[in-house]
């Protein structure tokens, strides 16, 4: 499981402390940053003046100190903000510059230049020489930079953003003499090599760009983009049940989409669930949260376009539920759904809600499918969700990982194959999974070889048709 990074400033948002969030949209994806206008107001204002003017658009990362360099010891950084490409793809200093900003380094709040922080670059002449260049600390660089009064004015917001920065830092660096700046002794380039004494010209596609920097847009999602995680059925039509696992499709809640030149983080890469100190699934995943009438749901995963979350059991007994997605303080419009007791659905191997069901043969832990059919008498384990609240004696808290206490649905649960009820040995919460995942254990009855429709009825609701069990 991923662990929450110690520098993630979620407490700023939770306590309502004044904070600004911006996204560095780079060749390799987004780096989301929470700025600190309360503690470094002059530095943040200076930075945002450049942001608002578009000064950082299409600038390059011109310096990278990384573990792959000749010197393996920290500091590790990536630096940018100062250079754009001129004629022949040669970097030139951006200008004109605003007046230098007064240094706001505060030794009382340090160490400051630790992993995941954003700081001002300075010239050698004065600590009050910061203008438009900045750097990300990608190791604990306090011993290197705090003594030089380098002002930290932001924090990388989450693990996905840190991964983008680390991927840039992992690129090979080159000493390229453009006749302008010694910093180009550590120029990060992608898809570049120099096997001969005379290096080839650096092309535009070799640089790593900051395409833009700007405020993070609030998440966008509509009721039409909310669906059952197992069946893909739209919740605006069927309602939402307590404990159901749903997926939401939209944008502006993750950072992993790279631009056309960035090969490192493919679109859709998921950030998966994390556990809190009590061993329950966190309700805040890399800054993304989904609330149901104000109650946050346990977060399964998030990508740049999709979220999976477990609906809190607290909505049971309510007639409607309002769903809101938030990311680093920005929130989507509220979406209202009817609340229903159960919404049973079976997971499938194609993850589309049809075809081979997600079933394990317990004797050899193999996956049942058309190419590996079950036999009569096999003991199988079927997976789904949407079974609603558990009996009072077996209920668990939201986000709990099912262990010795196995949640049993309060509503009657019936397994059906080809429309006929089949005896089950167990139907309820799945051991080792987040509370809400359903497990049904059964023995394959006498069935003809072929494909058979398999469904689960919980209360009055039946899982959709089209899900199958293959037998031989």
Architecture overview:
This protein is mainly β. It folds into 3 domains: 10-215, Beta Barrel (Cyclophilin), CATH 2.40.100.10; 220-338, Immunoglobulins (Immunoglobulin-like, Sandwich), CATH 2.60.40; 345-471, Sandwich (Immunoglobulin-like), CATH 2.60.40. Helices cover 8% and strands 34% of the residues. The chain is built from 5 helices and 33 strands. The chain has an 8-stranded antiparallel barrel. Strand 31 (450-458) and strand 32 (461-462) form a beta hairpin. The longest helix is centred in the N-terminal third of the chain and has 13 residues, at 41-53. The chain starts with 9 loop residues before the first helix and ends with a strand. The relative contact order is 0.12. The model is unreliable at 1-18 and 259-268 (pLDDT under 50).
Helix and strand topology:
Blueprint lengths: L9 H5 L5 E7 L2 E7 L5 H13 L5 E7 L11 E9 L5 E3 L23 E4 L13 E4 L4 H4 L6 E5 L2 H11 L3 E2 L12 E2 L20 E7 L4 E9 L6 H4 L6 E7 L19 E2 L15 E5 L2 E2 L1 E5 L3 E5 L9 E8 L2 E2 L3 E4 L6 E2 L8 E2 L2 E3 L4 E2 L11 E7 L27 E5 L2 E3 L1 E6 L7 E7 L6 E9 L2 E2 L4 E5 L1
Parallel strand pairs: 23-33
Antiparallel strand pairs: 1-2, 1-11, 2-8, 3-4, 3-11, 4-5, 4-7, 6-7, 6-8, 9-10, 12-13, 13-18, 14-17, 15-16, 15-19, 17-18, 19-20, 19-21, 22-26, 24-25, 24-26, 26-30, 27-28, 27-31, 29-30, 31-32, 31-33
